[in-house]
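hey m, so remember when u said the tokens were messed up on ur end? i reran from scratch. heres the input so u can diff it against urs
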Amino acid sequence: MNSQAQLFQVGSFNFKLNHIVIIGVLVLAFSISFLIRSQPADYGNELMEFDPFFNFRATEYIVENGFSEYFEWRDDKSWYLPLDTSGLGQTTNLEQLGGGRDVAGTSQVMLHTTTAITYEIFGGNSSLYDFTILFPAVIGSLTVIVIFGLVRLFAGTTAGLFASLLFAVSLPIILRGTIGWFKSEPLGIFYALLGFYFFFSGIRSENKKIAFSKIILGGIIMTFAMASWGGIQFLIIPLGLFILALPFVRKDHKFLLWSIPLFVGTFLLSAIMFERPGPNFVFGVGGALLIIPTIFLVVCIFIQKISKDEHKIRNGLILLFSILIIGAFLVTISEELDFLPLPSFRYLNALNPFLTTLDPLTDSVAEHATTSLPLSFLFHSILLIFSALGAWFLLSKKIPHSIIFERNDMRVFVLIMGITGVYVSSAFIRLEVFASISLIFLTSIGLSILIKEIFKINLSKKKNYLLKISSITIIFILFTIPLVYPTTSNWINGVDFPPTILNGGTSYPPSNDWLETLEWIKLNTPEDSVVASWWDYGYWISTVAERTTLIDNATLGDWQIKKVAEIFMSTPDEAWNLLTVWNVDYVVVYVAAQRLDGDWNGDSLYVLNGGGDESKKPWFMRIAGVELSKYLESDNRTGTNYFWNETLLGKMIPYNTLLYYNEEAQQSYEIFQTGTVPISVLDINYNDDGNYPLKLVHTSPSFTNKNIDRFSAVLVYEVNKNYILINDDLTINQNMSLEN
């Protein structure tokens, strides 16, 4: 049947068979994407991870108070500081601001506003909480349509359909956009690819009025993308490189002279209207990566215009290398003179992965872990092979590019995107989404060219017919393998895990310990209570328990996070001093343990290090800047006697080391030996109303449930404001290394 045969007509549009196929494939891609992303809902209808809880709270604030109030909102339940901070050694600008968080200036404004608007339109009778749980899975699945349109501009309909299907099953992208993942990436990627679509569609358009409108729209939407997720800044790199290449790959220089400045100007003007990315981005390195290439484009076109034909390319390249050298020099001296605002450390880290170990706070975040080769292969596997094939096709002179590419500039951008996407993703696991998008571009184009070449084979011979069938079958099998293998962690079940609030980020079975404890805090503590915990749990406490926290997942200030780490690593008396200066009422600690078979004099035996604060203590120490050897044994993981007996965190973890056991030798020791595991017994230090700095006032259900082997427990301690220091001479500023 002819794919161009008309089936029916709607208005002036004629539906043909190929249109039905396109719609069918896109519906299939959307459905597959949504089903895979929805797997965490099997464990419970909760938001994922940590940041989504703040994003829900911020969106709720818009829905309940309006946009004008939102943009003036200083959240006083987060990043709390007492009015008098002299005892804290406070030297940062948070002191002048009085604590709290400027929400519009420090968060993803477009994520909150877009969700609030769509909730008012499509929310119906659903609660906002349920809507925000569904939102990332829906918007992430809708992106299959956007990437189809974008790749279709690059390389035709077939490549676009392949891109939509590959995007639907890409593990790194789905990991950052499951149901409940109400974070930056799904919406940021949606807006970014949509902005790319309008920009490239505009510079391809023959109609100047349409091109003008699309280019402006592309610039505005790219700003929306950056205001949804700061990571979109990395897409400025391939955009800047693309603009540098345009004078050499396009001949319509008159069009470029107004279209590119229009896009860059629109993008930067709209970006400056947001507090984030805002002026620091526009007048910093990000803006320079677009402004300098745009100036180069204009100057290069002028130089080429006045140069002789045989010297046009040479003169342009000389100018290009001069710009690159000057740009590198400016960035270098900017670090010394600080005249060009630089991005934050984690953005610089993505450009230079060797910076990671310089900042323990950045290094401690799981999603900031450096990507390993085995993990990259799991994420991309078959894409690595076919993306290389796609790149070879684009570079090879033997392949008739006219069957795919009509324009050299599109081919150049895909190659630039491929190189920069893979490079940027090498720094953080979180940034593997950029490698995925880049590899999807190249793979879909490579597949499209390959299949077109296969079907060009003459069908008159039976041998050629079998070759076609077998080739298509092999390709299908190759792309099916990562969906089902390995059986325990493939592209489908790789996101089959419970929401973090149900297991605390551990590998232990889901439980309601965190939900129960947060509800207890909400119902049993004064509304003006201040709660101290490690920053991992800050958003849960401020959003679900509705209580004020010292630090949270925004990690806005290294100073304040370091102070909390120092509290945990201080002696109980020193920590109590600082907690009372900070007006803290409660301290929350999270412990994960495994109950062993057998007992010791009737007491159960436990192995810690399951992923709670007992496992995170090395990071507490590194961030606090203490001497590790004093707190950790030679394996840099096991706590020393000093840690367990002399630090606040050690005393709050209600277990005491009994012995050290070497499973391989089946031998126990009284002191730590390399290769041994600490075996502990229950030992609650602050369990009554005695003269203690803290009192244990609540434990979550799993703590006392002896029917489960692996469990995580949340413990709430109340600060004893009537505590009498054992050493009366101890004051806030003595014997403490808390001054900067």
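this time it looks ok to me. The first strand starts at residue 6 and ends at 10. if urs says something different then somethings off w ur setup not the seq
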